[in-house]
Design brief:
By secondary structure, this protein is mainly beta. The chain is about 5% helix and about 35% strand. It has two domains: about 100 residues, Immunoglobulin-like (Sandwich), CATH 2.60.40; about 450 residues, Neuraminidase, CATH 2.120.10.30. The strands form eleven sheets. It has a five-stranded antiparallel β-sheet with strand order 2-29-28-27-26. It has a four-stranded antiparallel β-sheet with strand order 1-38-35-36, covered by helices on one side. Strands 5-4-3-32 form a four-stranded antiparallel β-sheet, with no helix packed on it. The radius of gyration is 26 Å and the shape is globular.
């Protein structure tokens, strides 16, 4: 039997991570020693099944739906109940239709039994994009509410800005939020609170209207004539909603304003329609907005560009976590061909119970706490969709939505895991299919729950196959086997890694003066054998090897676990 002193994965420089294994879909990269252990909730567009995947990209559970598609948000509760938005795309509503359009929200148990559902979908309103689960069991939902041309003009809208192309003609679809109280015993639903954008408009276009005023002096109001996208009635297109229990506040991500909005939830519905009441004392007016000071005519530069998935950092995190309570956001259009993700920390004065504006006007912060930009920047770009999750160990799980790509990085930006949605327009692809293009495999959000999450206790989480056809069943088992080797001296250094030409091998405490190195590809084929002197740093040319991952094996009497991380 051969003895191994050193076994590790050697990376040779490659243009894209998907090429590193030859895999084009499913799991393409995995470093178990740095990646977060957990199960990934995956709800691909253009089909109805929600999947729970392990880190090897294998299905461990599914909730099948052959009638409805994502509409788009989905969450798993600690009791194992799945809360999912559903819709049928254009078929859902011939009156109001735009990207992110949904129809209903439903609750299913672990065994896929529908426990409750509620629909908001008619000629005047439609649920869309996202939901938020509240600790008391209620659900916050985003809803389009149709306003005619006449209603918009009566509210001070400039008629020249009524150029929408929706099925109802012009007009506007401003946002409202409804808080639903589901009764799983009898299937009924109560709307216990709501908030409407329409109640908080200001404008300086038509002095005959009651909401005429000084926009620059009213940052808590929304300018009905502010538009970055004049050609659509989907005026605000809120794409995510979140709730902060400690502050009793709600956050909306509003990409067409390049902003994040926060409102006070401690109000009654009546107070939420006005400008007084609640803990902050401003009723339903905005109590914080960030990203684009020009939306309320304040000084300062734009920091958000068509953002997605703005939320307080708290999913599956203890409140003692150093990043708990910060805001995370996916910043889609920072450049013409690249995106970024950020965390930020607004200043909230708990004595005055308000967000502190910057001295120069508008709300801060003036800089982000943390930013990730790919290297090169164009390696991460999603014109829409996109999400980020801060994980318990400090890693970040990023969803590059238009590309159908989820990947995990360390806080310093090192890649530790990557998964490519293996579906084209809702149908599974075969491994090694190279015909994927943006949007056809898109996904709204990709959420990881730790293995200790209560929903998984006592559940059958055995492997039940793969989404993709002709899956690679070798890669993950090989990776895991490598990481299970015992760590023992001697230490061996390999650099640079990745390498495009020459690999340097340095032996620091090997007793033998010579050894044999052998390089294998991921199919187990020997590609290079070399006798080496262990007294000095040695060099191996790897210029003849194709792009990919390789195993470097050093024969001797020791076992050692080592992982070389791609930069």
């Amino acid at each position: 039997m051969r003895n191994l002193i050193y076994l590790f994965l050697l990376f040779v420089t490659f243009k894209s991570i998907a090429q590193s294994t030859g895999n084009t879909v499913g799991l393409t990269f995995y470093n178990p020693s740095l990646a977060t252990e957990g199960y990934n909730l995956h709800f691909p567009h253009n089909q109805g099944t929600a999947y729970l995947l392990n880190n090897c990209g294998q299905i461990v559970h599914r909730w099948t739906d052959n009638q409805f598609r994502p509409g788009n948000g989905i969450w798993l509760r600690e009791n194992g109940h799945l809360y999912a938005t559903k819709g049928r795309n254009a078929l859902s509503n011939s009156f109001i239709h735009a990207g992110g359009g949904g129809e209903k929200v439903e609750i299913r148990d672990w065994d896929n039994t529908i426990l409750w559902s509620y629909t908001i979908n008619d000629s005047t309103q439609r649920m869309h994009h996202d939901i938020e689960l509240m600790p008391n069991g209620n659900i916050l939902a985003i809803v389009w509410q149709y306003k005619t041309d006449a209603e918009a003009i009566a509210a001070g809208r400039n008629p020249a800005k009524l150029t929408g192309t929706g099925a109802l003609g012009n007009g506007l679809w401003p946002e409202k939020i409804v808080e639903l109280q589901p009764n799983l015993t009898n299937g009924t639903t109560s709307i216990v609170w709501q908030w409407n954008v329409w109640d908080h408009m200001i404008q300086d276009f038509d002095s005959t209207k009651s909401n005429y005023g000084n926009v620059a002096a009213s940052p808590h109001k929304i300018d009905i004539n502010y538009t970055l996208y004049d050609s659509t009635a989907d005026w605000q297109h809120a794409n995510s909603i979140d709730y902060n229990l400690t502050l009793d506040q709600i956050m909306l991500c509003v990409p067409t304003f390049n902003e994040i909005w926060i409102i006070d939830h401690s109000t009654t519905t009546q107070e939420a329609a006005g400008s007084t009441g609640g803990l902050v004392g401003k009723g339903g007016d905005l109590i914080y907005r960030f990203g684009n000071p020009s939306a309320y005519r304040a000084n300062g530069s734009t920091k958000l560009f068509y953002p997605h998935d703005a939320h307080w950092v708290d999913v599956a995190l203890p409140n003692t976590h150093p990043e708990f309570g910060k805001i995370a956001v996916f910043n889609n259009k920072v450049g013409v061909d690249y995106s970024e993700v950020h965390t930020l920390s607004p200043v909230f004065d708990t004595y005055l119970w308000e967000y502190t504006p910057l001295s120069g006007g508008g709300w801060g912060p003036s800089t982000f706490d943390w930013t990730y930009q790919a290297n090169p920047p164009q390696e991460m770009y999603s014109t829409g969709l996109g999400a980020i999750q801060i994980l318990p160990n400090g890693n970040r799980l990023i969803n590059e939505g238009r590309e159908g790509r989820a990947f995990e990085i360390t806080q310093s930006g090192q890649m530790v895991w990557e998964y490519i949605n293996p579906m084209r327009n809702g149908l599974p692809l075969s491994q090694y299919d190279t015909t994927l293009t943006p949007i056809v495999n898109q996904q709204f959000r990709f959420t990881k729950y730790p293995t200790t999450y209560p929903a998984f206790q006592g559940r059958d989480l055995s492997v039940k196959g793969y989404i993709e056809l002709n899956p690679d069943t070798v890669l993950c088992s090989t990776i895991v086997a490598i990481t299970e080797l015992d760590q023992k001296n001697p230490e061996i250094s390999v650099f640079p890694n990745p390498s495009s030409d020459v690999l340097h091998i340095q032996f620091e405490s090997l007793q033998s003066s010579t050894c044999q190195l052998e390089i294998y590809d991921m199919l187990g084929r020997s590609r290079l054998v070399k006798e080496m002197n262990t007294n000095d740093t040695q060099m191996i040319s790897v210029s003849d090897l194709e792009n990919g991952i390789y195993i470097l094996r050093v024969n001797n009497k020791y076992n050692k676990k080592v992982w070389i991380q791609r930069n």
